[in-house]
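Hi V.,

Quick status before I head out on leave. The structure for the redesign project is tokenized and pasted below; the design run finished overnight.
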């Protein structure tokens, strides 16, 4: 009787441990995938002119709908003014692919924009913000 209970306990504990290991492995993989994508995007050769188009038209909703940016002719007070924030290209890329900004996850930019489009808009902002 005692042994049977112990065996059940060991089996349950093993099942929990295996499950936790699987969840952890999946989580590490997803986190690494996002980090890799950020680096791939930051390694691309950006087209600054196209970045302006992504900002104003290609991204849906347009970045301009929420963020003011003088160069883009964008005026909105729904989120931070990028001329004031002056984010690096890395910060912008991470805000789209690495889940650092919840409002962006809700827009599905990570799926809808290509790596090249994300590179273009991130470098465009880095280049023109605050100037
Ligand atoms: C629906 C509104 C909305 C849209 C559209 C939007 N953003 Fe944002 N964005 C936010 C909010 C909310 C935050 C977080 C608070 C803040 O910085 O204003 C944010 C934060 C940011 C930040 C700062 C990230 C950080 O880590 O501090 C950058 C850069 C940015 N957005 C760029 C963009 C770009 C590029 C696009 C278009 C691809 C875009 N946003 C579209 C709402 C939006």
């Amino acid at each position: 009787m005692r042994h049977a209970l112990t065996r059940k306990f060991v089996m349950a504990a093993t099942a929990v441990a295996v499950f936790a290991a699987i969840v952890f492995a999946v989580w590490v993989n997803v986190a690494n995938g996002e980090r890799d994508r950020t680096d791939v995007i930051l390694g691309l050769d950006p087209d600054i002119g196209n970045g302006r188009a992504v900002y104003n038209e290609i991204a849906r909703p347009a970045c301009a709908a929420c963020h003011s940016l003088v160069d883009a002719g964008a005026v909105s007070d729904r989120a931070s003014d990028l001329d004031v924030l002056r984010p690096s290209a890395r910060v912008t890329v991470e805000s789209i692919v690495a889940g650092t900004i919840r409002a962006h996850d809700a827009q599905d930019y990570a799926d809808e924009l290509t790596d090249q489009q994300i590179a273009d808009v991130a470098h465009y902002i880095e280049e023109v913000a605050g100037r």
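Above is the designed sequence. The pocket of heme C is lined by residues 59, 61, 63, 65-67, 78-80, 85, 87, 91-92, 95, 100-101, 103-104, 107, 109, 121 (CB under 6 Å).

G. will cover questions while I'm gone.

Best,
W.
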